[in-house]
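Hey, resending since the last one bounced:
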Amino acid sequence: MIPKAFAYERAHSVAEAVDLLQQAGGAAKLLAGGHSLLPLMKLRLSAPAKLIDISRLDELRGVSVVGERLFVGALTTHHQVATHPLVCQHLPVLAEAAAQIGDPQVRNRGTVGGNLAHADAASDLPAVALALEAQLHVQSPAGDEVFAAEDFFLGPLVTALPEYGVLRAVSFALPPSGARSCYSKFPHPASGYAVVGVAAVVAVGARGTVEFARVAVTGAADVPYRARAVEAVLLGQPPQPEVLRAAAGHAADDGAIAGDAFASEAYRRHLCAVMTERALRRACGLADAAAGA
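The structure tokens again:
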């Protein structure tokens, strides 16, 4: 498990990092927390000629609320997100998902930006990014660019991030007042990655019916996806157990569900329904679904 030889250079600003990427002509990778890139390098599934270290750029850290969005700097660690007062207050589903990533070492070194830019199909944060209609703020040679989360994830480990672009921050839409949320995951017993993970955000109006619903699924398909079929069933309906179960039955409709040696396609479809029902029940203030996985 030894990577191929590589050159190393530390960037002192985002602009310098963009310049160094251009100079490398596509042969360099950015190093942030390293918990996505380094395992690939050790397995020689990735062999960049140069690593450009951006891990000490304070301009890429921090959490703030601006208008109706919460901004998280790309180098903010998962632990910082999971424990930050602004995240816990405004977007508890984001804090809940970040707290379930990997182990303490990963959470204390891995970064939000690195996680999303890596685009692992079984990662936790992409589901939350989709459910919260995230925008990814990128600096590239073309200037500042913004990508909607739904347009960012193109395939396993493939994103719309420009070749010489640096992800600066991720902003998440704040749900309506009174909305409740949940991230529910069936983790792989060895890796902790999501076999299926579901982020749900639901708001019930004064009439007792669902007025706002955002549901997204990760782990089940080659790319995370919005479960719009689930949302469509929920809207305008009371959050009763039978309604939530019927909606959860459509959790696999919007994704190209995949199978592997651990979980077949049929099993993942089953998990999509089970984990979505659990997420919806918690988001609606009900007890966890009795159905087993």
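Residues 289-293 have pLDDT under 50 and may be disordered.

Sorry for the duplicate.
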